[in-house]
Amino acid sequence: MTVTIEPIPFFESNYAWLMIDEKSKNAVIVDPGDAKPILQFLKERQISLKAILITHFHSDHINGITELKNIFECKVYAPLKEADKIPDIDQTVHEGDIISLEGIGDVQVIETPGHTLGSICYYISDLKLIFTGDTLFSLGCGRLFEGTPAQMFNSLNKIAALPEDINVYCGHEYTVDNGRFALSVFPNYQPLRNRLENVKQLREQRLPTLPVLLSEEKRTNPFLLAKNITEFTDFRRGKDHFV
Ligand SMILES: [Fe+2]
């Protein structure tokens, strides 16, 4: 089984993640907020789309679904709790569900409310990775549009409890901005300084800062370093007002 994972950047900061089974040239896309760059990539590489995984209902994660479904015979998986806000769903999923994707492996659904109430993550132990949508970002976490700080704190802890050697793929390229805020919280923390330097260099070369190892996030992401809900709430509030 050889699976490659490609970032498809769109809008200002979004990534849709394409998992390609290199043997069959079939693929699965996570959070297609815009169909155009995905269609272009699939056409160039002569890959066909078999499934779409949705982490939450925000338009920059779902707006490409209908166009992709019109072209490919692909199955759309989306969170049960947001089913009324997402078009063209074939199968709703919730905590503990396993989706078996041919050529890719078993995908485990983890409910992670906070950014939205129905947000989910997709964990694939065979590939040692997790798609975290707008829940866990590199060096940050999603804004609390719907959930409480306690909900997000618990959601992040669920992710943090997974094996540390998995790669985190999130929905936005926010790492440098997140890192600037993180450094304001832990100004003298050398691992964080090193990390910020590293991601800045990647961005100067226009390279993605993702994926990132969960172990690295646990070492440097302030929202995973928060000791309790109170501290987490302070950090989240601080980030909301950070310029
Ligand atoms: Fe979002």
From TrEMBL:
This is Hydroxyacylglutathione hydrolase. Signal peptide: none annotated. It is an enzyme of class 3 (hydrolase). Belongs to the metallo-beta-lactamase superfamily. Glyoxalase II family. The keyword Transit peptide does not apply. Pfam families: HAGH_C, Lactamase_B. Residues 13-172 form the Metallo-beta-lactamase domain. It catalyses: an S-(2-hydroxyacyl)glutathione + H2O = a 2-hydroxy carboxylate + glutathione + H(+). The lineage of its organism: Bacteria, Pseudomonadati, Pseudomonadota, Alphaproteobacteria, Acetobacterales. InterPro entries: Clx_II_MBL, Glyoxalase_II_hydrolase, HAGH_C, Hydroxyacylglutathione_Hdrlase, Metallo-B-lactamas, RibonucZ/Hydroxyglut_hydro. The gene is gloB. Coiled coil: none annotated. Its cofactor is Zn(2+). Monomer. Thiolesterase that catalyzes the hydrolysis of S-D-lactoyl-glutathione to form glutathione and D-lactic acid. Keywords: Hydrolase, Metal-binding, Zinc. One of its GO terms (biological process) is methylglyoxal catabolic process to D-lactate via S-lactoyl-glutathione. The keyword rRNA-binding does not apply. PANTHER family: HYDROXYACYLGLUTATHIONE HYDROLASE, HYDROXYACYLGLUTATHIONE HYDROLASE GLOB. Binds 2 Zn(2+) ions per subunit. SMART domains: Lactamase_B (SM00849). One of its GO terms (molecular function) is metal ion binding. Zn(2+) 2 binds at residues 60-61, 134, 172. Zn(2+) 1 binds at residues 56, 58, 115, 134. Pathway: Secondary metabolite metabolism; methylglyoxal degradation; (R)-lactate from methylglyoxal: step 2/2. Its EC number is 3.1.2.6.
